[in-house]
Amino acid sequence: MILYETRIAVKSATPAVFSRPVIRSCKAKKRVSSLTANNGEIMKRLALLLFLVLTIVPAFYAQRQLGVRPTETGGPLMPEQAAFDVMTYDVSIRVDPKNKWISGTTVMTARVVNPTDVIVLHLDTPFKIDRVFGETSGGQQAGLRYEHKDGKIRIHYPAVKKLGEVFETIITYSGNPRVAPRPPWIGGFMWEKTPSGADWISVALQNDGADLMFPVKDHPSDKADSVAMRITVPDPLVVAAPGKLQELVKNANGTSTYHWLMTNPIPNYSIVFNAAPYRVIKDSMKSVAGDTIPIEFYILPESYNEGAKLIAETKKYVEFYEKYLGPYPFRAIKLGIAETPHLGMEHSTMLAYGNKFQYNEHGFDWLQLHELGHEWWANLVTARDWKDFWIHEGFQSFMDTLYLEHLGKKDAYFESMRQRAARTRNMQPVAPREAKFAYEVYLAAPDFLASDGDIYGKGAVVLHTLRYLIGDDAFFRALRRMAYPTKEMERWTDGRQTRLVDTEDFRRIAEEESKMKLDWFFEVYLRQPKLPKLVINMLSSWDKENKASSEMLLSWETPNNMPFPMPIEVEIGGKAQRVELKNGKASISYTGAVPVVDPKGWVLKAR
Prior knowledge:
- With about 600 residues, the protein is an alpha+beta fold.
- The chain contains eleven helices and 31 strands.
- The radius of gyration is 27 Å and the shape is globular.
């Protein structure tokens, strides 16, 4: 999901410098000073240099005030949800933009994993259900008893569904869908107009759930193996959706039906459509895997001349991601882009794009770079519970910043990480252990009316710190294995390449690649909110001949004295060295200038 906007930030460029204490007595004396490290800039220089940095800065650093809370999606999995595994959705929707109304039929095919005679689906409260029916014990289609209350559909079957049984449930419904109050962060439908005054319809669902559009098992742990969408809109609107366009039917009543089919597993919130009088730009590129990636850009007529440049940029971004993460996951389907009235979203194979073709001072479109990367971190690799939302947003935020390094701008990479570190809130865990609704992780407690942002920025800096800890070779191997655990999976395009993950999966991979135990790292940085604090004591002594010797004492302070043997880079005499803090403590003897601790800002720590 989008999280960034271009900002101008003012920041001090110079670390602090401490002068040596002066002791006038010729007797041996000691003086100790105690400091707390501040994002690697614990030493203040006498002169303060200010400069402007125009870079990618997460919008959540400013804690975006949304003023409204999303509806619930995810959360603890109910037994009536856990009892079945969704195989397919077939979603038919007729769209009436004049009345901001839809009517639809959803056919869900599922397999029983726990015997049950009751299941629960979700459908938002503005909708009225006309009928629910499915197969009876005699194999005939018949109406089923149901209750639709508080956004949940409780469906009763006349007999217990047995383990392994495949069943079909059909729901017809209609109504005025919820209008998105702050898209894409607080979602729903958008009934907008293009610059020329034509209807422009868009849907964003991530923080609210796909039940704002159709009946669904509203939990990230169940991605349908395939999804068909049959969207009927008034002419001359054109529908853009995930998957491949199978058929276009021109109806006699001045409408057209677009049949889209997605044949890879897809997150529920990616099952959306956009409609406008789009023109379609088609292109292609060669994947690192050797396949050809079809590219389709559904663009407004008014923006048509901008399309070729964004496609050219997108190809560069694909090459970047394929270098570090492996092949574009959905090359057998397409790389799709749809121009939208909202900022953007990572809808699989049909990315929502609304950044108005703006390129930053580094020459790239941060929004398109970000949303494309979610094809790996969200659509290929999907968190099985929203508690691990950071695997989508933190991993992708790291990749956003890594792109600066990829462009040869390593200083800009470090600067961006310093800015992220400075703006962490540290009020709630990045990766809590208990099941969560999406808004509980994405937004800030207690009222959940403003973004928290740490799953983005803090998540990125945690990965940056892990990179320092285990080294580039192990880190980038772990990153690629998190995307594709095996080389064989990099060759698959039939859906087997996708999978559900959690934070423990990444810990295990990072440990295997680094040959290090990393539980302490994950516990401190991800499982609880507070940052470790680096305490520095400066010790100077003089002998009878007034010869000075100096020592720097380093120690970590952590919540509840959690183990934290994190090494730190120290610059002594202009040379950087890695100082190990095996038991959370270390000492450095030096002469001359005071050493500079963590000069590049590798390690995330309390300010």
